[in-house]
Design goal:
The complex is a heterodimer of chains A (about 475) and B (about 100).
Chain A lengths: L1 E7 L3 H12 L4 E4 L18 E2 L9 H7 L9 E3 L2 E8 L9 E7 L2 E12 L3 E3 L12 E3 H11 L1 E2 L3 E6 L3 H12 L2 E7 L3 H8 L2 H6 L1 H16 L4 E2 L2 E7 L6 E6 L12 E4 L2 E5 L2 E3 L2 H6 L3 E4 L4 E4 L12 E3 L9 H18 L5 H29 L3 H7 L5 E3 L4 E2 H10 L6 H8 L12 H12 L20 H5 L8
Chain B lengths: L2 E2 L4 E2 L4 E5 L2 E5 L5 H7 L6 E2 L5 E2 L12 E4 L2 E4 L10 E3 L2 E2 L4
The chains are: A alpha/beta (about 475), B mainly beta (about 100).
Chain lengths: ~475, ~100
Amino acid sequence: MNTELAIIGAGPAGLAAAEIAAARGIDTVVVDEQARPGGQISRQPPADFAVENWLPGSIYKPVKQLLAGAGAPGATRWLPQTTVLALQHDPAAPLPHRYRLLLNNAGNTSELEASCVLIAPGCYDMPVIFPGSNLPGVMAAGGIQAFVKSQQLIPGERFLFVGSHPLQLIVADQILQAGGQVAGVVFAQRLSALWSLLKSAPLFIRHGAKMVYFTRALIRLLLKRVPIYFSRTVVQAHGDQQLQNVDIAAIGSSGTIQAGSRRNIDCDRLGICFGFLASSELARQVGARGRWSAAGGGWIIDHDPWMSTDLPGLYVAGEITGVAGADASICEGRLAGLGIARELQKIDAASAARLAQRTRTQLKSANLFAAKLLDLSYPGRKLLQQLMTEQSMLCKCEEVSIADFAQCLAENPFINDANAAKLLSRAGMGLCQGRYCHYHIAGLLAETRGIRERQIKPFNARFPAKPLTIKSLLDKRDDQLP
Amino acid sequence: MAARITRQVRRKQPISVNIDGEASRAYAGETVASVLLAAGVTVFYRTRSGQPRGPYCNMGACFECQVKIDGDWQRACMTVVEDGMNITTGARKSAP
């Protein structure tokens, strides 16, 4: 099967691009891993549920508007519950055979060829490594939120949130509203840092809805007497087989954790909320040029003003270009849609430039807000590395501890590259394929070797992008998409 | 333990799955992860060294919510329940 445009990811960026592609008569296939479109920010409830008043907040309005026409049968073909295992580029092949995607739908593999590809895979919560961080009950704050938003489940009884990103206020508020208990919300920053965001008048004027939403969540938590801690962070999670309580400790003015200030809080769920990492595996696999951004999502992908990468016909939009939130993602998705229509000659260059003008202004504004938020919420390497005690797990899949990794680096002083470190230590060889250790391996290599993270080549992103059984590959049906 | 939100939410007639041999209630559209958490399961699988693990990302990236479904390892958060499914929790990963 082939198509003019394959869009990977049905979140805000992918949906915005799909809308423009449909309007311009571009033959489009949208591939997404979830059962329904929306991405993580608007993870929809299952079609079998009837949910009244779903995601009532005004900040969800733009993404909910995009969802109105998404997923319905029509000119755009939607492939839900489908993972892209491989993305290959053949510069010599004629259109539409320039890009080849290998897809996996519940164990059924198939191929798709496309003239243009938009990679809009979003991001995932930044994992943080500390003693007990792998105990059942320790979860990504975004994972907790997805249970509430989509599955209509409160995934525990008593929740504690720790991190540096204000999203944790919103998730804590959603848990309270759903009927769960919140034991506290712990920020690594000083109170003055959060306050500086809330009192920024220019941001309030341009991004009023978001600021009001954050402030309302904070007020509701305070009214329910939920303790909000500042200058504190998690140092250990305890429990026999399952999380039972968490130690938090104060962070001194120099950024050093004060071991003597430990305090223990009972909870059965700990939400981790230190920011997000971009899902850049497929872009790295196909060979698109990128760079390191410690605060903006780890390895991110470069693009031109039409969101085209350095590979012809390959576009990126959303968090993969640097984590900036849904509003920026929608703008980038629109620009990519127009850029692709331009390349496929479905719109003339002058009209595309004219139509893009307003979106470019909106994107600029969204990026200003995002930059302010990143400044505020980036925890910094110093804090992250203080949490990693020798026995904590750097690679949770292959069970490579921080001590194991340090020993490997000490025994192999010539290694200053993530791939070599992986081959020698096994860190990054497990089922998650380095998604949960790559960021920290870059930080540890930089620290140990006295180099910059941006000088470190990222892990090679190999086929398959997500593991599957050999049986699924052998049963590949070459020309039958579901 | 986890709890289903019932206010403003209508689910279809319950279906039944087997969790470690015992019948348990589930609803169409739920993921295996939701059904297990609602049934009080904490340990989804054990690593090669025997450490307990459970859901972390809930979006298919971390592979911490693996369970055996009708004999095959699957991510619980990415698998929608089906009537009569046999789910084994707490199984240990074998050495490579």
